[in-house]
Amino acid sequence: MNNAIDIPWSQLSFCSVFVILLIGISLYESLRLEKTILIGSFRAVIQLILVGFFIKLIFDYKQWYVVMPILLVMIFVASQTVIKWLKNPVKEMYCCALISVSLASAFSLLFIFLLVVRIPVWYDPQYLIPVAGMIIANGMNGAALAGERYKSELEIRVPEIEMLLSLGYESKMASRKSRQQALSASLIPSLNSMMVMGIVHLPGMMTGQIIAGSSPVTAVKYQIIIILSIAATVALTSWVFVSLLDKKFFTPYHQIRYELVNPGKRKK
């Protein structure tokens, strides 16, 4: 099979039409997102170009002490992004995000590369960086959805939770419905993708491998690994994150910490 067709920068510039379309819809519907769209598009292009050249250097210089700092930066940035979706986050919540993203990502990556793919060198950037990027990013998105939904559910259910606590329920039981809603919400994107995988949705990794000249069967095998590991990572990251938040939103005496759950309402 031939290698992927190279795209001249002049032709790539035609993609600016998509940005113009986004801005047009925002202006027509008065969404006031034009600035965000421009900044986001500019950042995405610049960051991807820089990362492309950077990764090429990493691929040429295969050393674990070069690859590991990259993974650590990815995890730290992902953890910071998770708590941005929470209203009035505190330092403790960042630690929860960091622990959940780190544990879930490490578990998935170790499982994939030690038992499934079995690459000769565990820190081979050609495999580790792209797969880690997908795993960490999806775990980040899942945790962000779960954390935001969990906090919203707690705010809505404050009277219900207070009643259960007053009846002698532990905080973990009183907040169970909120956790269930949060975890279900975090899994919806992954489960939807799995339902239509190969019929409606042709994943990026599989498409990229096929365009690059890999066998479609090989591309499918890798995609099966990725889609299943992503779903598991999202579930694990979200579950750990929500479980840790649960301990932060309640005191050891099973009382709601209103300053975190609902800053506008403080217990008298």
UniProtKB/TrEMBL annotation:
GO terms for cellular component: plasma membrane. It is found in: Membrane. The chain crosses the membrane at residues 6-28, 40-59, 65-83, 95-121, 127-147, 182-202, 222-245. It is a multi-pass membrane protein. Keywords: Membrane, Transmembrane, Transmembrane helix. Its main location: membrane. PANTHER family: PROTEIN ALUMINUM SENSITIVE 3, UPF0014 INNER MEMBRANE PROTEIN YBBM-RELATED. Belongs to the UPF0014 family. This is Iron export ABC transporter permease subunit FetB. It comes from Kuenenia stuttgartiensis.
